[in-house]
Amino acid sequence: MRSLVMRKQNYYLDGRCVFCRKAFTQAELTDEHIIPEAINGSLVIRYGSCKECATRSNQEYENQALNVDLKVPRLLLGLRGKSKGSGPRDARHMPEVFAGNSVMGEEGKRLDFPIEDYPKHFSLVQFSQAGLLVGIDRGATLVDPRLAFFSLGGNGLENVRTRVPFINGPFAMMIAKIGYCYAMAEYGDDYFDATDIRALLMGTRDDVYNFVGNAENPERLSTRHLHGLYFRRRAEWLTVLVHLFASCHSQQGTNICNPYEVVVGRAL
After folding, report:
1. Which side of the chain, N or C, has fewer Cβ within a 10 Å radius?
2. How many CB atoms sit inside 10 A of residue 32's CB?
3. Residue 262 · residue 180 · CB < 8 Å
4. 111-134 pLDDT, tens per residue?
5. Which InterPro entries does the record associate with it (predicted)?
């Protein structure tokens, strides 16, 4: 059985919003989940963001990523976030299923069958290495994306293919937010210069692929929990490895993979 939980921890900052860094009263701040609660994130910056910044991140990228890129794993794994209902139990909420010899681009047939019979796998888009790490201005244009595949095991429909939902931008922005918030929670402002990535998250620059990519070299990371976060030092840069759905990679306890990597800033 693959783990659906991750470690729990509450963090407390300095009374300023983690994004805009303005001071607020506690009543004016809301909790900021480092990894979204909708995918069982349980690391929380208590009173971490002002309502304006929280609304911006939710509306401009996080909700889109959760409802498009992460829709399939959320439904297959039964991740419901704050909702405690039973959730959808049929596949009409999922992307179309194609027959085994179909060609992508044809109209899929939306079948009516229990979600337990849906193909027990999903994929997530992967990116080139973050531009800041290789001295290339990658901007906001996604070039040469590839897919990472995750298997949930068990039985399901065989000899079928499914669509891979993806919108350029929101998913990468969500990963940038995860890496930045984790670095702020663990280190605060004193360990790295977050000026540039903070400008990205505040919407004053849009070159997300300079900050977000996948690790160039494979990493051996734990699969004990649903998600994992790790720090790395790349020359002058502090980075955060974001290992989403780690427990869905393998049942062997560790996994050699190329996780997402976020450049959060120059180490001070």
Report:
1. N
2. 25
3. yes
4. 566 777 777 888 899 999 999 999
5. HNH_5
